[in-house]
Amino acid sequence: xxxxxxxxxxxxxxxxxxxxxxxxxxxxxxxxxxxxxxxxxxxxxxxxxxxxxxxxxxxxxxxxxxxxxxxxxxxxxxxxxxxxxxxxxxxxxxxxxxxxxxxx
Length: 104
Fold this sequence. Notes:
The protein contains 3 helices and no strands. By secondary structure, it is mainly alpha-helical. It starts with about 20 loop residues before the first helix and ends in an 18-residue tail after the last helix.
């Protein structure tokens, strides 16, 4: 109809599980919850601090797969920050006018 096309803005969300999670994210969170359940079932806790330590794997992995605006999740932010800090910080200009001029 009159060369008008409808392109949805959230096409990437259709590839994710429940619109938010990749399979790796769910596997990571599931492993953290499984480790926490094993710790809670096998160990005896006498203090609140020990219970928090037992729940730490689930809490940490839950924090890593938590959705964040403008990024996928916290794990994505941490990976991108690591790559930025460990890669070369001096960027050499090689654009269209790289060889077409002298000093200015």
